[in-house]
Amino acid sequence: MIIKAADNHAYCVHCFAERFNHKCAGCxxxxxxxxxxxxDKHWHPCCFICNCCRRPLPNGEYYLxxxxxxxxxxx
Length: 75
Ligand SMILES: [Zn+2]
Ligand SMILES: [Zn+2]
Hints:
two-stranded antiparallel ribbon; Cysteine Rich Protein; binds zinc ion; alpha+beta
């Protein structure tokens, strides 16, 4: 287990993430590895999906309706 130091305290990766990492705007779980920045929010790549067909959204191509994400086909 890797220890990271912050604020002069040592944390394991999980506790470090819990304290300092962003939460996913889709599932509200903590983001540990890859995250995607869109709409000023952070997302798991697998959570940044069309609200209708649940398919991943291609880069930069999404539509926002009532705060929900849709792709070109479903919006
Ligand atoms: Zn997520
Ligand atoms: Zn869709």
